[in-house]
Amino acid sequence: MVRKNRGYITLFLLPTVALFIIVYAVSLVILFSTSFTEWSAGRSPVFIGLANYIKLFTDDADFRQSALNTGIWVVLQSTVHVAIGTLFAVILSMKEFYWKFARTVYMFPNIISGAAVGMLFLCMLNPEFGAVNSIVRLFGNADYSQNWFMDYATAFLSVTMTWLPYAAVVTILILAEIAAIPESLFESARIDGASNFKINLYIIIPMLRNIIGTCVILSGTSMLQKMDIILMTTGGGPGNQTMNLPIYIYKTALMDNNFGYSNSVGVFLIGFGLIFVLLCRNLFRIGSSQN
Amino acid sequence: MQKSLYKAGCTLAGMLMLTMSITACGSGNSAENNGAAATAGSGNAAAPAAKAPVKISYLTFRVGTHASAKMEEEQIKQFNAKYGNEVEVVVEEIPSDAAYVDKIKILAASGDVPDVVMGKDGINDVLIKGNLATPFNDYLDKDAEWKAAIGEDALASNTRDGKIWSISDQKQNIGYFYNKEMFDKAGIKPAETWDEFMSNNEKLKAAGFVPLALMTGENAWTSNLILAAMIGTNGENGKTFMNTLHPTDFNTPEMIQALNMMKELLEKYTTKDALGAGYANAANAFSQGKAAMIANGPWMIGDFSDPTKSSEGFDAKVGVAAYPNNSLISTYEVGYMIGAKTPETRDAAEKFIKFKTGLEGQTLALEYGNVMPVSSEVQPSDALKEKYPIMVESITVAQKTQLHYRTLDSIVYPNVTDAWKNLYPKLAAGRATAEEIAKELTEIAAKNK
């Protein structure tokens, strides 16, 4: 049967494979090969061996800070963010009277574009007219002013708070998984006298291992692409306090006009992402049976 | 047999569709850059009337709420009315200056730039180095009238190794605007020295006003104009620095002194949101009467009587002044470049640029965008003078100044322009001294490729 359909299988796979080759594989090959070159816009790449990588790891403070920030954000997003989303899903799964309303409201930040979210926070945290400072002024010091995005003490946290708590995608994925758990399991547990807390802790959460692993990968890797909100709010500053690898790639390519070096950072970012995904797959044994 | 024929047919059809889609993707512009940087003017100078108009591509960021959007729209409209049967300008709108610069640089990396390009923020360097632009020498040699309309100084500012790479469409004479009412209440007049400027700030603050509308986000435009003035007026070395293209050493006493003064301004004499603020925040602070001064060019004049931006009668409160030491920022815009690849499109691009930068285009720019022309032949109309008296004042101030220098944006590498947004907060927070910032600027300039 399989042999009979082999022609069709090949035929229908062909467009996808061709598109993958054109869009991704070719780009990856170009990215990797030009990372060993000196290449700027309008000029031909010149092979320089490992020079870009040597500079990257030995003599580039901005790269180190960007990699560190990216790493911190990946860890925060794959732990705190996923934990918030999971907790919210477990609460919503109890289907109290508010659950549909809460689920919809929690989704709002995820359906607004990143640039709009950035603009929203930029206004809310504006030191002159922002809502946050105005509220603080209402309850205390009338002269209170905090430049949340540009003060070294608050910049990193302020940027982080523009995405960390909004885990609606995680919540929805986990809610769907909880809905798939057979009701009989809960009934048995209740007959045995288990409380809701114990059901959540010993039945639901262990059975969510696969989906939590998937959420960790999705959330963590989303931080490897995060750029719009940072560009809108801090631009990587003050100094390089909130710079991450995508912003650094943007700056080296389009501001320094150094595409070769920028691509070496790109290769590092892809490698970083692959290692993270592999680690998560092994840690959560994604794809294997719950038992 | 029938089945295998059907299978073969399907496979063939699939392959054909795939091939066609791939071919279509790559057929956008197959013309080779056949010696684009070679001498221009070799194409058909006058196309036959019956011939279809030559299509040229043009990307513009002067759209939407941009200060020059109206000017751009009018120039294109009038060009189409005059030359629409010869040249068809295919306009693509880009939402911001920064997005425009990014897009052109990415296109340049693939060797495929639009037919007409604005060479701002380092785009000219990329196109020249990449052999992607055509110099104007031959075109200008054939058209003395156009050459005269641009003027020697404007042409010289865009000439490298004898080749004129772009045509400037405007002269930027930039001082600062001040709120006369606030100045009167503080008992001050526009400063003639930097000591007086700092003392004015203190007096304005004492009178309960925020002295300066500064901003460090985006390209730190309003802050950098003042920084440029501080450097440019600091002796012969400062003046030379501010008139040097692509300075590589920022470790100069003039730069360090200016940075120290700027630190003081950011700490004591500006709005609370200046660190990280964009141009809109600073412009709003001045137009809404929340700050006493803003450094900016005459294109802002229209905002003072625009009810959506300023309160009623605000334009009557605004005065314009030169910087201390009777000085002014005076620079020619980089202007337009030819990125076209074939003789036919090169000629069409030249025609479009000639219209935009000739006397007619300069007049439109002045009337619709308050943009200062490069030619002294173009003067504001009586209607414009009546509508914007401050425009006349601005021209008078410019004529009286004796010391001129350029903007930082027009002399430094693009990566230096981009760095200010990160460096100013560092300086203001005391995380780096002026000397350290100067050193960093030098290192950043060295990174430019």
Can you characterise this structure?
- The complex is a heterodimer of chains A (291) and B (449).
- By secondary structure, chain A is an all-alpha fold.
- Chain A has 14 helices and 2 strands; from the N terminus they run H-E-E-H-H-H-H-H-H-H-H-H-H-H-H-H.
- Chain A has a two-stranded antiparallel sheet.
- Chain B has 2 domains: 54-171 and 333-385, Periplasmic binding protein-like II (D-Maltodextrin-Binding Protein, domain 2, 3-Layer(aba) Sandwich), CATH 3.40.190; 172-331 and 387-447, Periplasmic binding protein-like II (D-Maltodextrin-Binding Protein, domain 2, 3-Layer(aba) Sandwich), CATH 3.40.190.10.
- Chain B has helices at 2-26, 69-83, 97-109, 123-129, 137-142, 144-150, 152-157, 180-186, 194-206, 221-232, 235-241, 253-268, 279-287, 343-357, 359-369, 382-387, 389-400, 408-411, 414-428, 434-447, and strands spanning 54-60, 87-93, 116-118, 159-160, 163-164, 171-179, 210-212, 291-296, 318-321, 327-332, 336-338, 403-405.
- In chain B, strand 1 (54-60), helix 2 and strand 2 form a beta-alpha-beta unit.
- The N and C termini of chain B lie far apart (63 Å).
- The chains are: A mainly alpha (291), B alpha/beta (449).
- Chain A binds chain B through residues 7-8, 11, 14-15, 18, 22, 38, 40-43, 126-129, 145, 147, 149-152, 234-240, 243, 251-252, 254-259, and chain B through 7, 10-11, 14-15, 18, 22, 25, 101-102, 105-106, 108-109, 111, 122, 126-127, 129-132, 216-217, 271-273, 275-276, 281, 414-415, 418, 421-423, 425-426, 429, 431-432, 447-449.
- Chain A: It is found in: Cell membrane.
- Chain A: It is a multi-pass membrane protein.
- Chain A: The chain crosses the membrane at residues 12-32, 72-93, 105-127, 155-180, 201-224, 265-284.
- Chain A: This is ABC transporter permease subunit.
